Amino acid sequence: MKLLAFLSLLGLVLLGAGTASLPKERKRRDQTLGEGDAYAVLDNYDLGLDNYDEVIDLSDYEGLTDYGDQLPEVKVTSLVPPTRIGSTQSTVTPRKLSSKPKMSRPTMLGLLDSPSSHSLPTCLVCVCLGSSVYCDDTDLENIPPLPKTTTYLYARFNRIRRIRAGDFQGLTKLKRIDLSSNAIFSIDDDALRLLPALQDLILPENQLASLPVLPASIEVLDVRLNRLRSSGIQPEALRALEKLQFLYLADNLLDSIPGPLPPSLRSLHLQNNMIETMQSDAFCDSEEHKHSRRRLEDIRLDGNPINLGLFPSAYFCLPRLPTGRCC
């Protein structure tokens, strides 16, 4: 009993001491808070579960957190003001563009008929490099007007059907004409005869049935894959070509060896024609046995029905026998 009484008395003493120290702690906190501090307002209250609602009014919580009135009002306006003409507003309608623009290939019509220049229009359609003119695969139907300095003309893979007398007029420097793979069926006699420098005339894969009159300067004559007949080669026409070295007449309708041939000839191609026979003097002069053709080393008669073994006297002046069927 004495122990219980002692413990009770000790508890009362400790409780009294704690209550007496509260005013001292409050005074010490008041000294640390500055004037105007937001927490100084709360010093007049002893917070507890019984008086918490008196310090902060929870019923007005929505009012404390509503910041809607403080947000600035933003106005959006158009950057481009409407355009007005007079009193009515103008409306611009965009033009519709085609999804696939039409591409047109330049043609010779109009360009080559221009009277202002004889060289510039052709070089707009063809390719002019120095003294060479390239008109390959440009749908030509006629020989275009050429610059006066043209030396080499290439107009292959076109639709040219005729060569007229004035097509090459004044082209004194023209050395080579290549008209392969056209549809040429006619060449006027004066179209090529007056070209003093012409050396190479290339005309394969056309529709020629006869040869035109050629200048004496010709060295290479290629008329393969045409419709050339023996009657279309004038007598003495080839002999007059004193500089002719290469004569290509394969794949035509010839029924005899053309001649007389010029002494300058080195190569003669007559394969795939209709030749069945030949004269004894087709290559050599039978009366002049000393005559020889040392330059003519390449003669081709293969693809013809002729039997070369039947004409042994026709080859005595040749350095080599012709190529073809012998038996």
TrEMBL record:
<dbReference type="GO" id="GO:0030199">
    <property type="term" value="P:collagen fibril organization"/>
</dbReference>
<keyword id="KW-0732">Signal</keyword>
<dbReference type="InterPro" id="IPR001611">
    <property type="entry name" value="Leu-rich_rpt"/>
</dbReference>
<dbReference type="Pfam" id="PF13855">
    <property type="entry name" value="LRR_8"/>
</dbReference>
<feature type="signal peptide">
    <location>
        <begin position="1"/>
        <end position="20"/>
    </location>
</feature>
<protein>
    <submittedName>
        <fullName>Opticin</fullName>
    </submittedName>
</protein>
<comment type="similarity">
    <text>Belongs to the small leucine-rich proteoglycan (SLRP) family. SLRP class III subfamily.</text>
</comment>
<keyword id="KW-0964">Secreted</keyword>
<keyword id="KW-1015">Disulfide bond</keyword>
<dbReference type="GO" id="GO:0031012">
    <property type="term" value="C:extracellular matrix"/>
</dbReference>
<feature type="region of interest" description="Disordered">
    <location>
        <begin position="85"/>
        <end position="106"/>
    </location>
</feature>
<dbReference type="GO" id="GO:0005615">
    <property type="term" value="C:extracellular space"/>
</dbReference>
<dbReference type="GO" id="GO:0060348">
    <property type="term" value="P:bone development"/>
</dbReference>
<keyword id="KW-0272">Extracellular matrix</keyword>
<dbReference type="InterPro" id="IPR032675">
    <property type="entry name" value="LRR_dom_sf"/>
</dbReference>
<dbReference type="GO" id="GO:0061975">
    <property type="term" value="P:articular cartilage development"/>
</dbReference>
<keyword id="KW-0433">Leucine-rich repeat</keyword>
<dbReference type="InterPro" id="IPR043547">
    <property type="entry name" value="Mimecan/Epiphycan/Opticin"/>
</dbReference>
<keyword id="KW-0677">Repeat</keyword>
<keyword id="KW-0325">Glycoprotein</keyword>
<dbReference type="InterPro" id="IPR003591">
    <property type="entry name" value="Leu-rich_rpt_typical-subtyp"/>
</dbReference>
